[in-house]
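Good day; I would like, with your permission, to put a structural problem before you. I would ask you to consider whether the tokens describe a fold that such a sequence might reasonably adopt. The full record is reproduced below for your convenience:
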Amino acid sequence: MHFEIVPPTVVFAGNPIRYRIHLVDGGGPPPGKSLIEIVFSGKDTHEDHAVTLSFLGVERTFSLKSSPDDAYSIPSANSDETVENWAYRFYTELQKNGELLKNYQITLSDDSLTINLRAYENGSSFDMSVVSNTIEGMTINASTGGSGSTSYDGVAVMVLDKDGILLGEDVKPINDTNFIDYEISEYINALFATLTPPRFILSDSTHGYIYLYVDLVKKYRVLAGYHIPGLVYVSLYDNYHWAISGGLSREGLMVWNQVSGGFWNDSNNKKRFLTWGPLVKKTSRTNHESLYFFTQYSDVTRYNVKVKAYLADKSSTTFELVHMTYSGQYVILEMMVGYGQISIESHTDNQPVVKWDVWLEDQYSRILSEVRTFLVDEKVYEFPREFVFRNSFAVYDYIRFTGKIEKNLVHDRETTQIDRNEVETFYNTPEWQTKILEQQIYKGSSGWVSHKTMDVLRDMMLSPEVYEIVNEKPLRISITTKKTSKYLKDGEYLYNLDLEYQHAYQDNFYSNIEEHSAPDPIPDPDPDPMSWDSEEVTFDSEEVTFDQTLKL
């Protein structure tokens, strides 16, 4: 038995993670390992009943005791307990025997009626024979080493996390081809399902523009072996692998499956930031921008975020924005690189910047990543909107909409609910409740963008998690409809995306929120009494001002 197919060292949890096992010996049980089955069909309540076994060249006697006091004492059954409970206590006591644990793998079947002892090594010395037995309700079946009399019901794989905790187990029957395939991505995906969104930072005050996520990369290992009820005879140990959330499209997966080592073994992909956006991106001086990077370097202990700013006078300056000291190989970094977020003009003597480059270097000034360029868009737009969404790398991309935006209000009214169990009297009316919900519906346009940026919009439309940034706060939205159009300009097609979306929640008090306007001015709490009208208004006053109380 051996692994015929294993996944690359680093994989996407959202794509299939496949293993194939080749049963070279035709699927029979592995020879040379002794198996002993202790089967319980009843119980024995008598102390000093015993069984004498011969193994490892020595005879050993196991005696029933009400209170076991050594490694060869076995608990006698109680009159009021079940056979399963006695077998479980029997099994627990055998696990305290150092001689057995050293030479045999001890397991209990699912029905708690059979204890299995499987020798770790080949050889007839591990065979076990019964010399005498006076214990009632217990029989011992033994197969000698190399006899191959054990019946296996299939082959199992077990998926373990970095701490050795079992994530899942899959058992498949032995077939005539001697090849058995397994797909384990569901077990790895379950680890990422517990992560609480969102995983992006809009403003920074304490971490110096860089964040480290160790839980966005999961370490796992796969073990395999022959399976009998209650026991997996492990004989294959795969190396540790790492998985990140997200995945490739079916077309992309087919391409990279043909490459040895997969997507993340390619040197260019190791340098890429976790986005499908173009290397050059237009942005504004107020928009948020973040870059995520998946580190796979075992010899890097320091990550330096470098920025090169280009000024309007054609000059430039290069500086280190921030650095992080960390020696872990597989982690994800988030770097804030927006114009205002990093206060880029504070590094250029308050000179405005027209564009800036961002990349990563290690402690030896070696460039680790690709270079991303941000261009300042000097145009003024009437309806700018900013969105952030989870892309297919399972991290977040920012995108700006510059086209026309429409906003409408939708009110949902529910039928009044009345408690009909109450009795109507002169002093009591039935309790009733009416609920009115309000929601804002938007129509938005991306403006004309290039084909490469259209790929980012496509990623947004496929995203399960999209937010609109309003007043520095992310509001989750639900995209309802979309329409794409294009036109030819200067020999290049430009694209436009029109969509409708709504906030992903409803609220009774949503109308109290005004998104893009300042609060109304608050009157002076201690005004000049000469400038205010009389507080009392009589019935013959022709006009009532806002600071008066009408009294009739």
Notes: The radius of gyration is 36 Å. DSSP finds six helices and 36 strands in the chain. The CA atoms of residues 225 and 235 lie 5 Å apart.
